[in-house]
């Protein structure tokens, strides 16, 4: 255990501890149905009924299903698919995403959402300033830059996905969506963010920050008021959330701690959700770890051990059935 | 007239089905059987200012190869040999896809493969390009220009290069005491060389001479399409093919190169052997064409003198 | 074959591959990356994509693959450009590009050290990087190079085929063959025999007899199975390193 007051362990020792902790976490993957590219997928009992091939699979010869990616085999009734872990964000309608504007094009903004293509935010899908509902005119089109410019960070929701080529259309037709400022963006792998009931979370005191967990792996950490109901004035609609001026030091430090907690979870490959973030922050407080040391191997090892213990406890409580 | 228009429209809209209709009859849109290459002609000395040149046509594909000789100092590693430097260009006139600012990928591939074939076959003995050991040697700049790109560019480019080397004549030169290489003047003055006070010049060659060429490489590009082997594809056919294999053999039957750069379908041993057989046949054809054209060229040369 | 007992300069038999190492996920900003080493030859490949492609270069029906080959030192020359084209066409044989219309996949190859069999090493590395990026493929490729050593005078003749040659062996050989093979043998043919793995890419240097080429092909097939087994093992280990959220 890390002694807060003792001499700091050497880097090698810390790295060794981290590796050990990671190994413990990995051992829980031994029983999962992982499959490699090119492997034949066991059709199992469904073979007689016929199978539908989903993502990540292809037919190879007679009644033989082959994996085209490495990942986890998922079976839902007759549908067999292989879910790859790494990879760009695949949108689903209704996902909350955080994106960055790359281009202001005709009647739309092109946004980078860490997907296979840039997503489009149509002019018709945003709320005009003043909350007015009317047809978009040429003047609106010319004033697009007043609303969002290149490199602006925006929270939005996936409206629809084009069947033909998978192009994603976003919308910000709600008070809680819009431009983000006065905070920090952390990028993690999309598979670490699971779809939750609420993606706009206000972390309670003493953390007191608001986070937006974009399903595309972009996590925004900002001030709490963006999350509060009606954090944006309904009438204003398009005002950016968050302080536009100087952010005070206290808030900045809290945001950095939360951001590093997210990074720590991502570095260990653990899912990023609010309880986990809060726990990591509390652990760092308990062990009196400086914000800047939160990404060092000693602290990461501690987080990993904690997680391993938690899984152990869970495993003992209810035997896993596969 | 109507049916002609219909056929054209069908070809435009459904190029694959159009092609397959012919294949199912064992033939191709231009009427050739699958295993036959287009008619090939070679014209020697097409560029009078070059030291060696040849114009090759395989069907509509037209390539011009020219060799210019320049003097260089041999390298320390090979003081008794010259070298060959090749370039391949596709000017915009040769194809609707070729543009001045964007190099087509064929340019990189063709020039590398042509040089590879020439070196692997041992066509040119670079020692023959020597003028004076350690002091001077010829560098042969082989420039190949595509004038009309209608498929199988590598076949035509290699044939043009081989023909250009066959046409190449090394001019007579002498090396003066300072190490400069000077041309030997022809006719009466050549004989008076020593009396001109250049007694100290080293006369390297007195007559024009040709290279003694080694084994000649012959190439055949064969396309793969749904199990069919299609010899010497045109540009239209190449756009539909799944992959191509270019086999290069010399007259002794040695394999100089078997070049298959990826492509959607992979080949089995049986298909490779079929390609080799087809290439053997084509190599015999090409050798004959070269010899006949060369003979004609000599005859013409004799006549003009 | 003569001199079967004699060893090569680095102590290998003529039929022995060099030790292979594959590290994945080295580049954090790339969607996938892999470093493949065959003793002295080492190549790092980064894969970016599927990602947005500028409208001028996008293909409405499938993803556009582009390869960038960076030599160890100096700028790109004609050999690097040829290698880019060969590698790109090789990868196009297995990447399921129609799944990502209008997208682009960039494969960046950085040569770290070249001690022979460079193209083979690059093909193996590129496949590993594509898998690391989670890009669907119809199968893995295995690439291997063979050098035909010059005939020994007086040792009974017969050039022997050296698998996975070093730079020295490659430069001194009479001919070399570099092949990329599919890793699943074709189904049994009508006469009951099983065809070996099919050839996706073949490039050769130097002259050889056709029989020698075909024999080299068979040796490559056997070696490709070893390479494939190693690649699968490395894949499996890398997979388990990625933590899976509670199922």
Automatic annotation (TrEMBL), chain A:
GO molecular function terms attached to this record: RNA binding
Any one cellular-component term (Gene Ontology): nuclear exosome (RNase complex)
Alphabetically ordered keywords of this record: Exosome, Nucleus, RNA-binding, rRNA processing
Similarity comment: family membership: Belongs to the RRP4 family.
SMART domains the record matches: S1 (SM00316)
Biological process per Gene Ontology, one example term: exonucleolytic trimming to generate mature 3'-end of 5.8S rRNA from tricistronic rRNA transcript (SSU-rRNA, 5.8S rRNA, LSU-rRNA)
Segments traversing the membrane: none
Organismal lineage: Eukaryota, Viridiplantae, Streptophyta, Klebsormidiophyceae, Klebsormidiales
Species name: Klebsormidium nitens (Green alga)
PANTHER family (alphabetical): EXOSOME COMPLEX COMPONENT RRP4, PNAS-3 RELATED
Domain S1 motif: 92-173
Signal peptide feature range: none
Protein name per its UniProtKB record: Exosome complex component RRP4
Subcellular location: Nucleus
From TrEMBL, chain B:
A Pfam match: RNase_PH_C
Protein's UniProt keywords contain Transmembrane helix: no
Entry GO MF terms: mRNA 3'-UTR AU-rich region binding
Compartments in which it is found: Cytoplasm; Nucleus, Nucleolus
Keyword RNA-binding: yes
Keywords assigned by UniProt, alphabetized: Cytoplasm, Exosome, Nucleus, RNA-binding, rRNA processing
One GO term of the biological process aspect: nuclear polyadenylation-dependent rRNA catabolic process
GO CC, any one term: cytoplasmic exosome (RNase complex)
Limits of the Exoribonuclease phosphorolytic domain: 37-171, 216-279
InterPro entries reported for this sequence: ExoRNase_PH_dom1, ExoRNase_PH_dom2, ExoRNase_PH_dom2_sf, Exosome_comp_Rrp42_subfam, PNPase/RNase_PH_dom_sf, Ribosomal_Su5_D2-typ_SF, Rrp43
Membrane-traversing stretches: none
Gene3D superfamilies: GHMP Kinase, N-terminal domain
Assigned protein family: Belongs to the RNase PH family.
Record's protein name: Ribosomal RNA-processing protein 43
UniProtKB/TrEMBL annotation, chain C:
GO biological process: nuclear mRNA surveillance; poly(A)-dependent snoRNA 3'-end processing; rRNA catabolic process; rRNA processing; U4 snRNA 3'-end processing
Gene3D superfamilies according to UniProt: GHMP Kinase, N-terminal domain
Family: Belongs to the RNase PH family.
Residue stretches in coiled coil: none
Subcellular localization, as worded in the UniProt entry: Nucleus
Exoribonuclease phosphorolytic domain boundaries: 16-136
Name assigned to this protein: Exosome complex component RRP46
Main subcellular location: nucleus
Record has Cell cycle as a keyword: no
GO cellular component: cytoplasmic exosome (RNase complex); nuclear exosome (RNase complex); nucleolus
Keywords on record: Exosome, Nucleus, rRNA processing
Nucleotide-binding in keyword set: no
Molecular-function GO terms, alphabetical: RNA binding
Species, as recorded: Klebsormidium nitens
Record InterPro entries: ExoRNase_PH_dom1, ExoRNase_PH_dom2_sf, PNPase/RNase_PH_dom_sf, Ribosomal_Su5_D2-typ_SF, RNase_PH
């Amino acid at each position: 255990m890390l002694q807060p007051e003792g001499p700091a362990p050497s880097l090698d020792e810390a790295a060794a501890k981290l590796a050990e902790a990671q190994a413990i976490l990995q051992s829980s993957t031994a029983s999962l149905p992982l499959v490699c590219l090119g492997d034949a997928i066991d059709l199992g009992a469904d073979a007689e009924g016929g199978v539908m091939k989903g993502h990540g699979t292809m037919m190879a010869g007679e009644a033989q299903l082959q994996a085209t990616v490495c990942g986890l085999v998922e079976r839902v009734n007759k549908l067999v698919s292989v879910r790859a872990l790494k990879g760009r964000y695949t949108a689903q309608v209704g996902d909350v995403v955080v994106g960055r504007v790359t281009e202001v094009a005709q009647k739309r903004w092109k946004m980078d959402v860490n997907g296979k293509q840039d997503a489009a935010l149509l002019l018709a899908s945003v709320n005009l300033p003043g909350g007015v509902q009317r047809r978009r005119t040429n003047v609106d089109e010319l004033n697009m830059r007043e609303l969002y410019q290149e490199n602006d960070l925006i929270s939005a929701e996936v409206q629809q996905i084009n069947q033909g080529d998978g192009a994603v259309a976003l919308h910000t037709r709600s008070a809680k969506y819009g431009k983000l400022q006065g905070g920090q963006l952390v990028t993690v792998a999309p598979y670490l963010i699971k779809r939750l009931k609420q993606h706009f979370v206000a972390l309670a005191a003493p953390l007191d920050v608001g986070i937006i967990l974009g399903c595309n792996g972009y996590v925004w950490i900002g001030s709490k008021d963006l999350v509060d109901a009606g954090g944006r004035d309904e009438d204003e609609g398009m005002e950016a959330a968050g302080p536009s001026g100087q952010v005070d030091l206290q808030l900045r430090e809290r945001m950095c701690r939360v951001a590093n907690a997210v990074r720590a979870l991502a570095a260990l490959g653990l899912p990023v959700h609010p309880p986990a973030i809060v726990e990591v922050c509390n652990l760092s407080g308990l062990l009196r770890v400086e914000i800047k040391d939160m990404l060092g191997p000693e602290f990461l090892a501690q987080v990993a051990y904690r997680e391993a213990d938690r899984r152990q406890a869970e495993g003992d409580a209810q035997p896993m059935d596969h | 007239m109507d049916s002609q228009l219909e056929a054209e429209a069908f070809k435009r809209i459904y190029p694959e089905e159009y092609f397959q209709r012919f294949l199912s009859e064992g033939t191709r849109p231009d009427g050739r059987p699958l295993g036959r290459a287009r008619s090939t002609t070679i014209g020697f000395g097409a560029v009078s200012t070059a030291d060696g040149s040849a114009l090759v046509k395989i069907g509509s594909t037209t390539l011009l190869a020219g060799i210019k000789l320049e003097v260089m100092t041999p390298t320390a590693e090979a003081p008794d040999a010259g070298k060959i430097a090749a370039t391949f260009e596709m000017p915009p006139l040769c194809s609707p896809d070729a543009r001045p600012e964007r190099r087509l990928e064929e340019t990189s591939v063709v020039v590398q493969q042509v040089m590879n074939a020439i070196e692997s076959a041992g066509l040119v003995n670079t020692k023959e390009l020597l003028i004076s050991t350690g002091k001077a040697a010829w560098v042969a700049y082989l420039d190949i220009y595509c004038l009309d790109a209608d498929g199988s560019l590598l076949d035509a480019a290699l044939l043009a290069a081989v023909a250009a080397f066959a046409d190449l004549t090394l001019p007579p030169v002498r090396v003066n005491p300072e190490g400069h290489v000077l041309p030997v003047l022809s006719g009466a003055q050549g004989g008076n060389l020593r009396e001109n006070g250049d007694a100290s010049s080293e006369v390297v060659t007195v007559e024009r001479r040709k290279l003694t060429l080694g084994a000649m490489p012959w190439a055949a590009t064969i396309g793969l399409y749904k199990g069919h082997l299609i010899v010497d594809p045109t540009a239209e056919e190449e756009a539909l093919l799944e992959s191509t294999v270019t086999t290069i053999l010399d007259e002794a039957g040695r394999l100089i190169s078997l070049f298959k750069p990826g492509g959607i379908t992979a080949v089995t041993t049986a298909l490779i052997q079929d390609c080799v057989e087809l290439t053997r046949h084509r190599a015999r054809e090409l050798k004959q064409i070269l010899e006949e054209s060369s003979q004609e060229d000599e005859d013409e040369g004799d006549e003009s003198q | 074959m003569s001199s079967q007992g004699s060893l090569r300069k680095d102590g290998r038999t003529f039929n022995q591959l060099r030790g292979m190492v594959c590290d994945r996920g080295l580049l954090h900003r790339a969607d996938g990356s892999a470093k493949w080493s065959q003793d002295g030859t080492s190549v790092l490949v980064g894969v970016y994509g599927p990602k947005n492609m500028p409208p001028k270069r996008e293909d409405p029906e499938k993803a556009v693959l582009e390869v960038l080959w960076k030599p160890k030192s100096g700028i790109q020359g004609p050999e690097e450009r040829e290698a880019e084209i060969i590698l790109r066409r090789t990868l196009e044989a297995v990447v399921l590009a129609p799944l990502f219309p209008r997208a682009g996949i960039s494969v960046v190859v950085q040569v770290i050290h070249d001690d022979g069999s460079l193209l083979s090493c690059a093909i193996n590395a590129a496949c590993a990087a594509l898998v690391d990026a989670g890009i669907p493929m119809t199968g893995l490729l295995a690439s291997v190079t063979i050098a035909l050593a010059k005939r020994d005078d007086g040792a009974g003749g017969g050039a022997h085929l050296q698998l996975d040659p070093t730079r020295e062996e490659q430069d001194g050989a009479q001919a070399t063959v570099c092949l990329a093979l599919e890793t699943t043998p074709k189904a049994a043919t009508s006469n009951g025999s099983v065809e070996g793995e099919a050839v996706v890419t073949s490039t050769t240097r130097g002259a050889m007899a056709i029989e020698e080429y075909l024999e080299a092909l068979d040796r490559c097939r056997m070696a490709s199975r070893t390479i494939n087994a190693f690649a699968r093992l490395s894949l499996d280990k890398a997979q388990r390193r990625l933590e899976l959220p509670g199922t």
